[in-house]
Amino acid sequence: MSTSTRIRGNNGEGSVNPFRRAWSTLSESAMASPARFAILIFTILILITTLLLTLPIARAGSGTGGTPLADALFTAVSAICVTGLTTVDMATHWSPFGNIVIILAMQVGGIGVLTMASILGLVVARRIGLRAKLIAASDTNAARVHGGPVSESQAVRLGEIGGLLFTVAASAIVIELAITALIVPRLLIEGFDPWTAIWQGFYLALSAFTNTGFVPFAPGMERFAADPWMLSVLSIAVFLGAIGFPVIFALGRWLRTRARLTLHARITLWTTLILIAFGGLVIAVLEWTNPATLGAQDGPVRPMTAVFTSIMSRSGGLSTVDIGEMNGSTLLVLDMLMFVGGGSASTAGGIKVTTLAVLFFAAVAEARGVDDMEAFGRRIPTDVLRLAVSIVLWGATIVATASVLVLHITKAPLDYVLFDVISAFATCGLSTGLTSNELPDAAKYVLAATMWAGRVGTVTLAAALAASQRRQLFRRAEERPIVG
């Protein structure tokens, strides 16, 4: 080989090959187990964010030292898992550097680790191969973490993953900038200076779209409790983030070609709207005369607050009233709404609205005495029901275990502990006030682990813990136990 050939090789492919080799290595690791890969990357990002937030430069005020490890870890997990719970005052505790770290953490956590990895791979390699498509597919459809074929009626087919990645990147940027443009003028009217209005407007827009729920100014959202413009804009941002990128992709395709909406998109949209309406109505009825919440507001403001709280309980985490002052009956309703959460492959948490819908369809089929679950003219296979039941059981187990531990550590009332634990698991961010700087460090670690498990996903977590998928070569004799 001539010297000129070696030079050309070093200057040409040599500068690109290391990146491609690194991406290929990550792809092979993800292909071996996308679920374990997601958990590994999530954990690494949390540790890096925690390290950055413990630095003195990340905390506001000179000479105050760094943030304690428990608070830094809790905030890092809450940001990466787009939860919104916090043990420090987000409006005053963090410096500009700390806020930048939190903003980046929210953005990465909202888009999704595997999706972000696929987008970076597309930028580096300038193409998206089969491996990268499968990585992204694992982030858009939880059923793909299992071996075997995946139904062609899924929300996004493998050949459409490239379009989905473009939709994720474009929709995230466009929606966040559009929401920022709608928020900034309102902050200027409120008295914020232009620079503060711009960066805090973007912070709030990002927090709403990613369903995080962090508020960068004091005293929080209470100052906008009677502002229909601000509450409507934030509600739209939370709704778009909560329905999921596959649904946004399906809606975009429907607008362009009038193609039939997928079953997943229809179930997600209808169930979400029904739960919002149901939650708003129940909250209004239960809190209408409570002088500490809706009862202290003017008549026209009360329904707006009830609907806003219903939307935020699905994973948004923003609130214009003191959640801790709500009636116990209302807290229980919010527990149920938070546990359900938002749409699959979205910035929301919970067991997901499609899981609830599948269980409802199964109950209807059983009541009718038919074998098949049906919805919108389509048949739902039984393996989806098994997955839905597993998700609910795993979620309930995580919530129950965390509640027992936090109850034992804090000795706080059950309704407050249960509410904040479900909020952590569903990555919602609403709080009764339990999560504060006075919370014992042990309880902070328990809630951080609950947020991590809730964001990673019960299906992904179960698949990652499973050693392997085995083919069963025989079937045992059938015998029916008595149920019910």
TrEMBL record:
UniProt xrefs under InterPro entries: Cat_transpt
A molecular function (GO) term: monoatomic cation transmembrane transporter activity
Segment forming the signal sequence: none
Membrane-crossing segments per the record: 37-57, 69-88, 100-125, 161-184, 229-255, 267-286, 336-363, 384-409, 445-467
One GO-annotated biological process of the protein: metal ion transport
GO cellular component: plasma membrane
Topology class, membrane: Multi-pass membrane protein
Keywords: Cell membrane, Ion transport, Membrane, Transmembrane, Transmembrane helix, Transport
Subcellular location: Cell membrane
Pfam families: TrkH
Keyword Transcription: no
UniProt-recorded name of the protein: Trk-type K+ transport system membrane component
Naturally occurring in which organism (per UniProt): Microcella frigidaquae
